[in-house]
Amino acid sequence: MAISFTKSFTIPLMLTICSTILRFGRSYDYPAAFNFGDSNSDTGELVAAQGFSLSLPYGQSYFNTPSSGRFSNGRLIVDFIMDAMDMPFLNAYLDSIGAPNFRKGCNYAAAGSTVLPATATSVSPFSFGVQVNQFLHFKARVLELREGKGGKKLDKYLPAEDYFQKGLYMFDIGQNDLAGAFYSKTLDQILASIPTILAEFESGVQRLYDQGARNFWIHNTGPLGCLAQNVAKFGTDPSKLDEFGCVSSHNQAAKLFNLQLHALCKKLQGQYTDGNITYIDIYSIKSNLIANYSRLGFQQPIMVCCGYGGPPLNYDSRIVCGQTKMLNGTLVTAKGCDDSSEYINWDGIHYTEAANQYVSSQILTGKYSDPPFSDKMPFLLKLKF
């Protein structure tokens, strides 16, 4: 008998069940996790690195403070995944305040990061190659400290040596390479750049593999054209929108990127015969959410929860969520909505906790992965999220 969940009570029940399921699946019983990405999985890296602070209502729905450094009102997909695997939330690599514990892994993802090397105009200097360098430094220092005097005392703070080989390496990056390019390049130029982006990504993965990494979990990129920021900038002409109100060109670029990323993953699956390469189709999950938002309990598929301007988008690029600013001679505030669980989009770029919860629940079914992992966890076949 299938068990179905509604949004109102999925968080505690779904995670309890999935946590049990994942512990049964030995192939997914990892001692640690190392994450690389952008703001979709940043747990405080960019905030710690650049010394700025987010403001409420960021973080209000779960952490009760914006100091978690997450670009959402609450938990991210990576948080739900870690919780489901019965592991603690990942601490940001550069966030040393509060004596973070890195025994179960580390997060190198930083908002605004790209796969390609950062430029002078980049939001984040922590491109994928830099994040890989940070990991290599982290690993070297961990091994050095553990080999020194008093290394045993660090057991509860730092990963064991074999965790680096047995751990899960997660990737969610590439969105900013595509979305940012639309401000200066044509669609054809962007599509032509995808092989270069993926060559850089492959190089980083190869470096991790050479360091002993064997378990790779690679997310593709979501429907960029459905983010309010892109609709506001590039969707003023209705002919450029699809039937869901998303910018067609952005989604076209995301689809081609994902097609080639999938091909790369298949190549790596054949190349790394002693490894596990899992490709996760985030695009399909998010597209299904937007197309079927009402049936899934949401009321707003594209309009922003925390923003300014009112319907249809409630988004103004001149003012960010939580900020008060003088616009056109009037002091205004980009406020949060009354009920964030009704919205998919949080601030024009990022998802709400409720939407992140839905996406993570779909990832955990295993049916959006290649290879599918439900066959390794038979209990999943009896569940319907």
TrEMBL record:
Keywords: Glycoprotein, Hydrolase, Signal. Gene3D superfamilies: SGNH hydrolase. This is GDSL esterase/lipase At1g54790-like isoform X1. Belongs to the 'GDSL' lipolytic enzyme family. CDD domains: SGNH_plant_lipase_like. Coiled coil: none annotated. It comes from the Eukaryota. Pfam families: Lipase_GDSL. GO terms for molecular function: hydrolase activity, acting on ester bonds. The keyword Glycosyltransferase does not apply. Residues 1-27 form the signal peptide.
